[in-house]
Amino acid sequence: MREPRVRVLLVIDQFEDPTNGTTVSARRFAAALRRRGHEVRVACYADDATQRSDAPHPADDVVRYPLRRRGVPGFDRVVAAQGWVLAKPDDDVLREALRWADIAHVMSPFWLGSRAQRLAGALGVPATAAFHVQPENVTYSLGLGRVRPLNDLVYAVFRPFYDRFGHVHCPSRFIADELRNHGYRASLHVVSNGVDPRFVPRRLPKRGDLAGRFVITMTGRLSREKRQDVLLEAVRRSRHAERIQVVLAGRGPLAERYARLGRSLPHPPVIGFLSQDALRDVLASSDLYVHAADAEIEAVGCLEAVATGLVPVIADARASATGQFALDERSLFRAGDPTDLARAIDYWVEHDDERARMGSVYAELGAEHAIDRCVPRIEEMLLRAVAEQGRAADPTALDHEDTEGRTHGRSHER
């Protein structure tokens, strides 16, 4: 029997920026829900906050409830460094959105998400959450990413927010374990954010400036925790540096620094943001994918690469989930160690046949994470929350803290 259709309100600070990983995941999630027959609208920051909330956005035909930008004195630099925009809650806008919705799914833990959850409780609208902002995203921007007590503190700051929800989506087992280890009490649903179905195994001839070179691609924001510097230094130390061309697909505050670091390589890196179509083409003409990040909740960029048929080489970082995609030790290197990464790169440069064989195996792994396979499991979480709470209003939700944390007995982890 077909699941009931519901009206889903996504609450997210920004829904427009195609360079932000959470935004990309949210847009794919919205499209997948709509393909499954649900209605989806979004409460988010919009450049023109006077846009009619009942008018579909021309970019993707999804209705926005537009909000203004919120500044954070003293932290605007950190916010901008991560490519974030924070939305300023507007009770009138949020009430209108929530009255339309059967359920709200909150995708960021800041002022907008917190206020939306409180108003949802007052209106009797069930709400779920997603954990997309890793504490290391904040602390690395401050130059303190390796200070574990500070990361623990950020987990503690986020915990009261997430404990107000009965159900929380976690994109990886790694981040679910981190939340449980830090005392989070909600039911945790481990489901990948999913790969766009257009990322499939294919090969393209290398364009003129890449012809004859061994192309290594890494996707992701150019920020401290992603560690593109380790890849550049590894190429410098490689026995095959004369053949290697690095492509850093992304933008961020360290773009100029990485351009300077790469100037002395035999082939300076190609750096810049790529549209999804351009990224698919670059991956299809690449020879190897590297993911050097010290901190990562999942890394859909790595999944996109393996779905295309690329072998990955991934940092075994303690605060990164991406190592889960390595099928054997040849696809791992010691985090932060360019010499060990150079060793792994040299192995794959020198073993073309094995790289081709394993590329096909990795493509099967990528297919298992296709978004249309993942979304039904998140859909199940949403429908369960609707069934549990219904639409019974809670008029006191805005007046006091919910000391029970809105949990429902034992944790139900998937």
Number of helices: 14
Mean pLDDT over all positions? 89
Order of helices and strands: EHEEHHEHEHHEHEEHEHEHEEHEEEHHH
Output the strand order for the largest sheet: 3-2-1-4-5-6-7
| Uncertain regions spanning at least 5 consecutive residues | 391-414
Structural shape: globular
Percent in strands? 15-25%
Number of strands: 15
Query: Structural class from helices and strands?
Result: alpha/beta
Helix content: 25-40%
Rg calc = 22 Å
Largest sheet: 7 strands, parallel
Distance between the termini: 22 Å
Q: How are the secondary structure elements laid out?
A:
Layout: E1 7-14, H1 21-35, E2 39-45, E3 63-67, H2 76-81, H3 91-100, E4 103-106, H4 111-123, E5 127-130, H5 135-141, H6 148-162, E6 167-170, H7 173-181, E7 187-190, E8 214-219, H8 228-237, E9 244-249, H9 255-262, E10 270-272, H10 276-284, E11 288-291, E12 295-296, H11 300-308, E13 312-315, E14 319-320, E15 332-333, H12 338-349, H13 352-368, H14 371-389
Helix pairs in contact: 1-14, 3-4, 5-6, 8-12, 11-13
Could you walk me through the main structural features you see in this protein, from its secondary elements to its overall organization?
This protein has 414 residues and is of the alpha/beta class. The chain has helices spanning 21-35, 76-81, 91-100, 111-123, 135-141, 148-162, 173-181, 228-237, 255-262, 276-284, 300-308, 338-349, 352-368, 371-389; strands spanning 7-14, 39-45, 63-67, 103-106, 127-130, 167-170, 187-190, 214-219, 244-249, 270-272, 288-291, 295-296, 312-315, 319-320, 332-333. Strands 3-2-1-4-5-6-7 form a seven-stranded parallel β-sheet, with helices on both faces. The longest helix has 19 residues, at 371-389. It is globular, with a radius of gyration of 22 Å. The two termini are 22 Å apart.
